[in-house]
Amino acid sequence: MGTSISDLTSEALAFADQQGLTQSPDKVLELKQFWLAEPSEDFLPGVALLYASSEGLNIIVTLMDKTIFSEATGFNQKTWELGDVVELFAGIPGFPTYWEIHVTPNDHRLQLNWTAADFDSVRKSERQIEEFHITDPDFITSSVSIDEESHRWSTHIFLPWKSIGIVSNPSSLTFEIAICRYDASPGKKEATLSSTANLTKPSYHRRHEWTTLTLDIPEI
After folding, report:
1. Which residues pair with 46 in a beta bridge?
2. Which of 46, 129, 140, 218 can pair with 63 through a Cys bridge, CB separation 3.0 to 4.6 Å?
3. What is the percent of the chain with per-residue pLDDT over 70, rounded to a whole number?
4. Is pLDDT of 1 > 60?
5. Which domains does the chain have, with CATH numbers?
């Protein structure tokens, strides 16, 4: 089931075009296992395209996937325990809070707003993850396309600027960002991980290793 990253990028661009994103992406990011000298045997490639607009950030992710599945059935479930997931991590430099957004192949979402200390407190079972849920279903929008024959799936995530407190129209915005995945399979104990960020360990919450990007924002 080999495919080149250029083929995957072409499919991502075609999906973006279907979503009305006909311009060239501002950034093209490849999902890799940067913490390994060589990718694991079960690694499959993925690509993310970023499009900044006057209203928000559009993210297109296209992934190779042998077994596309998720047992998620609703909003703000523990999606990483339920199958395949695309995960978006984004923060503004200098602000401790960051956003974590999950989208499954059946288009269910998990939305979180927290800090590194909050995440650590949940990891240690000192607090509950539900305390950090973003309960507004319109915080982001998402859509999904699955190509079972080609073993690929794509998602379009739109993050409105107003959802993250940006109400003016700046000429540019700087982000710390990581686009990651859980590539799960039924009966497989652990998912295969990969990320656009140059992580030195397979842990997506290493914010100091996320990619810092400055995107030009089109005028309204």
Report:
1. 31, 63
2. 46
3. 98
4. no
5. 5-216 (2.60.40.1190)
